[in-house]
Write a structure and sequence with these properties.
Blueprint (H helix, E strand, L loop, with lengths): L8 E3 L5 H12 L4 E5 L5 H15 L3 H5 L9 E3 L21 E6 L23 H27 L14 E9 L13 E4 L5 E6 L5 E4 L5 E3 L6 E6 L1 H6 L9 E3 L7 E9 L5 E2 L13 E2 H12 L9
Parallel strand pairs: 1-2
Antiparallel strand pairs: 2-10, 3-4, 4-5, 5-12, 6-11, 7-10, 7-12, 8-9, 8-11, 13-14
Helix pairs in contact: 1-4, 2-4
Amino acid sequence: MTEFTEIPVVRLGKRPDEEIARDFRAAYGTIGFGYIVDHGVDPALIRNVFEASKQFHALALAKKQAIAVDRSHRGYIAINTSTDVNSSLADVTKPNQSASFMMMREDARVDPDIYLSGPNRWPDLPGFRETLEAYVEVMSDLGRRLMRIALLASGATDFSVLPAFDDPTIWLRLLHYPPQPKSSPDDLFGSAPHTDFGCLTLLAQDQVGGLQVQTPAGTWVDVPSNPDAFVVNVGDMLHRMSNGQLLSTPHRVINRSGRERYSVPFFFDPHVNTIIQPLPGTGAPNFNPLIFSDFLRSELEAAYEAHKPNKN
């Protein structure tokens, strides 16, 4: 991983995937973050999702708590209820200073053989569900294209893992970061330093700022908003699948702007029952295989009150 002072730009458009993969490799093989532009997602749809997020977070607390996140990880996540205790990047003892609504795949029922399966928990807001479902459909298509590009960039010669993304694990998170006082302690974060645990994160963010990415030397580089781009980063599972060729880079959020901050990360991962392992063509394996659901369970139980083993 090399030192950097800014985040690179990768253009999609109608370019061949093989050509894009060279640019993807340059960005994600050295930094792990990039601005993805010419992505084809309607800006009006993105604006509608931000408006839906603001409407949700403006609801009375009792209405949000009525759909509090459950063991299927859907619903409202209140401020001060998630802590990145697994972080090896900072001594994290204080909860993240953010609240969010979490949507995952819409399942008709809970399937005991599929971890985190189940229906979503929807607020009583006109058009809210329809807006989010339209966004998830478009973003899932973009995620599938980016996964193929990512595997090309990693040098993989076997693409048989891609069908695991036909019925993916998706997480759409409507995040709200209240402004932190400028005098707040250094160890109080909107989102504590962490790497993402999945494959791809596609982030839409507002103009407020606060997202920072860590360089190998330990300095923090701002990721300012680009209204024409998604900020896309590689997570731990894609890092493993690429055998370390693509980097999962630490990042954090600190909102000392004095303004409300809203962001919409879309996490695109394979089906929970997928075996995650280095792909053929990426070299001698540096990682042992693991089942994605086992990894998820350990992460969620450590970080979220709703998933603690002693919770009903």
